[in-house]
Specification:
By secondary structure, the chain is an alpha/beta fold. Helix content is 32%, strand content 18%. Helix 2 packs across helix 16 and helix 3 packs across helix 15.
Length: 541
């Protein structure tokens, strides 16, 4: 039974002026227009100079001096891990199972998050940090994080940014997510689950070998039908062959592209050219910060460069649609989001500048050019001259050399998260990552005094990326006795070498590329990343 929506319709009444990139069915661009907003929804969009709708004659009107886009919707992220810095991928992989069990993965990714996720006081800091990291990149809808109390009663993420798995809103049907690929032995069970939902985001065929592709062919059921419906969105879809995209499209399925993560780990990405030729709907997501972009704006820049280097596979408008109109269609949220139209929810992004090509303006924008982010009609982040029209906000911030104001107040927020500013969250995470060996030792000796700064209830993180500290056991078990021995070895190593002896202090990832002096250089050092991306990204940032 639905309860109060996580984002209730209670925003202020006002008007927003600027160039408007509607992303509607005809892709109208209004060079100068006014968007009228009330209680979280768009009441009307009128070209400048036309009368306002009845009842809006005297509402505050704000001139953005920028270009207004629909808010960005990312369909793939492992938010829990986005406090971690970019990983220097040690070699080229052909399957996800190769890298998810190596010692460095436990040391640098899964182990740190296992410790922070189980140590009282850090989960709320993670949530506050990662939601703001998304927000600073223009994201208004994201995917994936959950909180659990130490009494075992689920308290799902109720952050500032929309989350596709938890909306409690009939107009925004909740998506399911499934980390593991589908095996032939459970294809029918998966199909039954798929038929009960409107959208299921499935990690599908992540890798480049035949084993990765076999997870797609496992969707071919014994009765010669396919476990594919319009509800299926295959994340990565890296190993799919041309005929697989034909099958995916014929049954209404979609895919979610994460080009930077694919290139860093596997040296290639999904065959999006064939996907496009076959009419497959394509969404996009940055995956996570350890092997992907810091935010969706950055991931779209990578997609832009990849497209250009491979014969201009997509126009900039098509790429932007992956994060707006098409993403909403994949979620079956297109009646409420994805474009700027009367009756839709007011999730909006403003980028400085309104004179150049509107799509080029977006892809050339730096993080410091994001001047306003609005979710459900509520201004959440932006330039002080715009934000101050709605009060002082909750916190002042700086991105690069520009001042910004955050508004993180939310009536439906989790109390532990609501109590934290972004600065407090950063300080706490910086301290925790610097003390990882000590915190791991405390968990190994639970009688030691816990973090003293947090009162009950204490919240713990449910990681969504792995079975056990980054060890993906199920695919190995499918490999017969050889796989069983690999499982035993991984479990033995995890049990025999405690994390307190494995972990080292880590740096908290910077919230934006604008504040990360080493990010571009670390990308240049990535052995699997094509030169076109290495050389192109510095100019786009």
């Amino acid at each position: 039974m639905l309860t109060t929506p996580i984002d209730p319709l209670n925003g202020p009444q006002y008007a927003l002026q600027g160039r408007v990139v509607t992303m509607d069915a005809a892709y109208h661009v209004l060079d100068s227009a006014t968007i009228y907003i009330d209680a979280g929804k768009i009441a009307a969009v009128h070209p400048t100079g036309t009368p306002p709708p009845a009842g809006y004659e005297n509402v505050p009107s704000i001139q953005t001096q920028g270009t207004i886009y629909p808010g960005l919707i990312e369909l793939h992220n492992h938010l829990s891990y986005n406090a971690l810095p970019l990983w220097q991928v040690p070699r080229l992989y052909i399957n996800r199972n190769q890298w998810s069990g190596i010692p460095d993965y436990r040391k640098l990714i899964s182990g740190p998050m296992a410790v922070l996720g189980q140590t009282p006081g850090y989960v709320e800091a993670i949530v506050r940090f990662v939601e703001c990291k998304s927000l600073f990149g223009g994201v208004t809808t994201t995917q994936g994080i959950a909180l659990f109390s130490n009494q075992g009663i689920a308290q799902y993420y109720r952050g500032i940014v929309r989350n596709v798995e938890q909306t409690e809103d009939a107009d925004l049907p909740e998506a399911l997510s499934h980390i593991a690929d589908v095996e032939a032995v459970n294809g029918e069970q998966f199909f039954a689950r798929l038929q009960r939902c409107t959208c299921l985001l499935l990690h599908l065929s992540e890798g480049t070998d035949d084993a990765a592709r076999s997870h797609f062919t496992s969707l071919h059921l014994p009765d010669n039908t396919w476990a594919i419906t319009p509800a299926l969105a295959g994340i990565h879809s890296l190993a799919l062959a041309p005929e697989d995209f034909q099958t995916l499209q014929a049954h209404g399925g979609a895919m979610v592209w994460s080009p930077l993560s694919n290139l860093l780990l596997y040296g290639k990405t999904a065959d999006v050219e064939t996907a496009k030729q076959n009419g497959v709907r394509i969404g996009i997501g940055p995956d996570w910060s350890p092997s992907g972009s810091k935010n969706l704006l950055g991931e779209l820049k990578v997609a832009h460069l990849y497209s250009a280097a491979n014969g201009n596979l997509f126009t900039d408008r098509e790429l932007l649609s992956m994060a707006t109109r098409t993403a909403a269609e994949i979620l079956h949220w297109d009646k409420a989001l994805g474009s700027i139209e009367a009756g839709k929810l007011a999730d909006l992004l403003v980028v400085a500048g309104d004179s150049n090509d509107p799509y080029a303006t977006f892809f050339q924008a730096h993080e410091t050019d994001i001047t306003f982010v609005i979710i459900n009609g509520v201004p959440r982040y932006g330039d002080p001259t715009l934000m101050m029209n709605f009060g002082a906000g909750t916190e002042q911030w700086q991105v690069g050399q520009v001042a910004r104001i955050l508004n993180l107040a939310q009536a439906t927020a989790n109390p532990a998260v609501e109590a934290l500013t972004l600065r407090e969250a950063c300080d706490r995470l910086h301290d925790g990552l610097n003390r990882l060996p000590q915190l791991a030792g405390d968990l190994e000796h639970p009688t030691l005094k816990a973090f003293s700064g947090v009162s009950a209830p204490q919240w713990f993180l449910r990681l969504d990326q792995a079975d056990l500290e980054g060890i993906s056991l199920r695919p190995l078990l499918d490999q017969g006795m050889e796989g069983l021995e690999a499982v035993r070895e991984q479990l033995r190593l995890a049990a025999s070498v405690p994390l307190s002896q494995v972990l080292e202090p880590l740096e908290l990832d910077a919230v934006t590329v604008a504040d990360d002096k080493t990010y571009i250089e670390r990308l240049r050092q990535q052995r699997n990343l094509p030169d076109s991306i290495k050389q192109g990204l510095p100019t786009l940032y």
